[in-house]
Amino acid sequence: MNKEVSAVLEKKFEKYAEELKLLVDKKSVRGKPENGFPFGKDCAEVLDVAEGILASHGFKMNNYGYYAGDADLGKEPNLMLLAHLDVVPEGDGWTRQPYSMTQEGSILYGRGTTDDKGAALVCIYAMDAVREVFGEPKKGVRLVLGCAEETGSEDMEHYFSVRPTLEYTLSPDAQYPLINIEKGRFAPFYEKKIARTDKKVRIERICGGVTPNIVPGKAGALVSGADRDELAKLSSDTAEKTGTRCTVTNEENGVYVLFEGQTAHGSTPELGVNAQTALIKALAQLDTDLTETLRFLEKTFPHGETDGESLGIAQGDAESGELTLNFGVLSFDGEKLVCNYDARCPVCASEMSVVKPSDEVFASAGFVSSGDNQLRPAHVVDKDSPLVKEALAVYEDMTGNKGECLAIGGGTYVHDIPGGIAFGIEFPGKDYHMHGADEFADIDEMLLTAKMYAQIIIDLCY
């Protein structure tokens, strides 16, 4: 690492926590479009805050209709640094204020401290320090700050409709050492109308998962006409077999059965316990209008299975690993049942090996496909590309750890950007509670990341 730049960064980082708090204290969760703000007022305001921070570091931000902003160091940029300022909702379980950043020693707590406001600020510091030591680069650096990464990257669709991609793209929105392969994704929705008969026991509604990429931690159903004690015994036995918890409570129109498991990200469903599949296993034992349909779902998505074997789409390759599947969404309103699964697909996956068999299996059970059920292809960057080699070399030199390429089931901000890779910001073996309660960042690690990004800028742009 260049010693002068390192020293400048260490000095400048005295203000890092103060400036990060300005960003974290803005609850930049996507809202409804209003007054020219495509992702709501809060996401627009955090971009304004970032513009002020950039200005204090001597950079001018261009605002693209509050979809995203960018700022350049030098002319004719060839390196893009891509981060986002929107965050996921806080959820439950916080022991500190999610939108009022607090510091305890070197640890900074708050939503976005790691994902991805802390990372965005790191990029500003890296650019600032390099410029202070070396002046203008031969090839420029462009920092892009988006406002809708957490909700599908609609911000980048707009941004790249008016601005070009660059030769190199790095995003500090994942983990170290480096991600060069992101699996493809197939997350179809299917629905089925349920014919009502005069059966005594009725399932009035089902409230399962609502987000495709989250393993459902809770799933419940309102059942009428059933013996409460028998239903409680059936549910308890199912909970014991599935490693879940259940409660049965009386309601005005029947008995409500609630199963609780363990949430996890949809790209790693094996780390969760799916409450939804446990609920289905219990409800399928009842004699109702939904029995045949629920038994189909139980057979297609057996509790604990996460590889798509029973659906007929299990596959994998040495390059990117095995397909993973999360049965993420289920709802029934008394007339229509809607369900969804989220499959993270290896490089070898195709329409013929994933989409076609899935559609055929669901059609055989009376379901129809709804929505835009397209296979999103995998993102692959050659491990011998100049950017990959550069980033890994810097990582090894500055951490003393082995640099290697990773393939993941999750998608990062660079998934649709040719040649783009994710580099940091999470270090191996550490849980930063991203998307969970008490998300945090370590200011010492952020400084190390700033130094690594600064060195890459030096090597590629000067």
Contiguous helical run count: 11
Extended strand count:
25
**Percentage of residues in helical conformation:** 25-40%
Could you give the distance between the termini?
Answer: 14 Å
As an assembly, this protein is: single chain
Radius of gyration: 24 Å
**Sheet with the most strands?**
9 strands, antiparallel
The secondary structure category is alpha+beta
Described by the principal axes of the CA atoms, the overall outline is elongated
Whole-number mean pLDDT: 96
Q: Point out poorly predicted stretches.
A: none
Q: In what range is the share of β-strand residues?
A: 25-35%
Q: Care to describe what's here?
A:
By secondary structure, the chain is α+β, with helices and mostly antiparallel strands. Helix content is 31%, strand content 25%. The protein contains eleven helices and 25 strands. The protein has helices spanning 3-12, 16-24, 41-56, 117-134, 154-162, 228-242, 275-283, 291-300, 351-364, 386-399, 443-461; strands at 62-63, 68-73, 77-84, 102-104, 107-109, 140-146, 168-171, 174-175, 178-182, 184-186, 189-193, 202-210, 218-224, 245-251, 254-260, 316-317, 321-322, 324-332, 336-345, 368-370, 379-380, 405-408, 421-422, 425-426, 440-442. Strands 10, 11, 12, 13, 14, 15, 18, 19 and 20 form a nine-stranded antiparallel sheet that branches. A hairpin with a 2-residue loop joins strand 14 and strand 15 (254-260). Helix 1 (3-12) packs across helix 11 (443-461). The longest helix is centred in the last third of the chain and has 19 residues, at 443-461. The protein is elongated and about 80 Å long. The model has no long low-confidence stretch (mean pLDDT 96).
